[in-house]
Amino acid sequence: MAIEIKSPTFPESVADGTVANWVKKEGEQVNQDEIIAEIETDKVVLEVVAPTNGVLTKIIKKEGDVVNSAEVIGEFDEVQEVKSIKEEKSIAQAEELQDNPKISKVENKKSGPAVKKIIAENNIDPEAIEPSRKDKRLTKADVINHLESQNKTAEPQNVQGSVVTSSRPEKRVPMTRLRNTIAQRLVSVQQETAMLTTFNEVDMLPIKELRSKYGQEFEKQHGIKLGFMGFFVIAAVQALKKFPIVNASIDGSDVVYHGYQDIGVAVSTERGLVVPIIKDADTKSLPELEKSILEYSEKARDSKLTIDEMQGGTFTISNGGVFGSLLSTPILNAPQTAILGMHAIQERPVAVNGEVVIRPMMYLAMSYDHRLLDGKEAVRFLVSIKEQLESPERLLLNL
User: Fold this and answer.
1) Which domain holds residue 25?
2) What share of the chain is helix, strand, coil (3-state, %, to 5)?
3) Res 193 pLDDT > 70
């Protein structure tokens, strides 16, 4: 019995998606709830799973095709045996072999599947290829050398008669939907906001000593390591409460003040940068924040984030320091007013109480929309974060 395989029902904020990957191929047997395909939207990757045990009989939407919400992308048979499909494919391949004399010649020379594929794709006559092996078996190198020799023969000549080389390898692939969306949003922010960046530095020694002193006890008690990001989230929340304009956003000609602090934590993945949101961060304790950060990071890297977990946000923190960045200017995550950039902790000589000492220092960068936020508020906001991190007791006393 044939069953239609449909794309997931998209939320209202998602217009369509793209078939990113067919995990299963036609004729392959799958088990119930096993992933068949992945649909990439502008925000997340959605999974299509098998409705029951059976066989994927037909792929309607190929990889890269655009699909709408709940659109049929393939067909599934819960009865058909894998063996019958494999036999059909074997018959079809045999017929193709008989009908294609060039492939037949390759078969006669006992060449491998890679060689057959290249010959078929480039429409080459196998008899024209000079084999390098004594048994006359064609290798992949033989075919590639033959193609290169043909290209050199066909290369254009310049006015002096020398060959214009163009044989260096290139690969052209379309942008993923997520990467394309990121590109459009970044360009839009640069064009539509008056973005400016202010910098400061913070002495991380007090936080490092706190982690060193209580790190093991914290992990034993809460089952999670005590990181740096949790402290930054708490410091940002308290600074946002003191400077509510930084937590606001522009909507047309209106300023929207948000009575909550939803903090976005930028996470780099193989598919691109995503920003899961810690909702109501002002109500969470340090252990709860650390658990949320770890959970979202893992889900982001496994492409398991939901639309709801990425929507909203009033302020964003990005940590380029994990990759070794010493200083950068983060780009706003519209429609937010500001974004905080963390960087690598580096031991540097600094002056403390008139003496030069070595301290673990971190540069901080805050980009903000100058249309809404003046330099005075931006600088004071960043100084507030610096003061809280350099005196962790301020985090507890809400100072």
Assistant:
1) 2-77
2) 40, 25, 35
3) yes
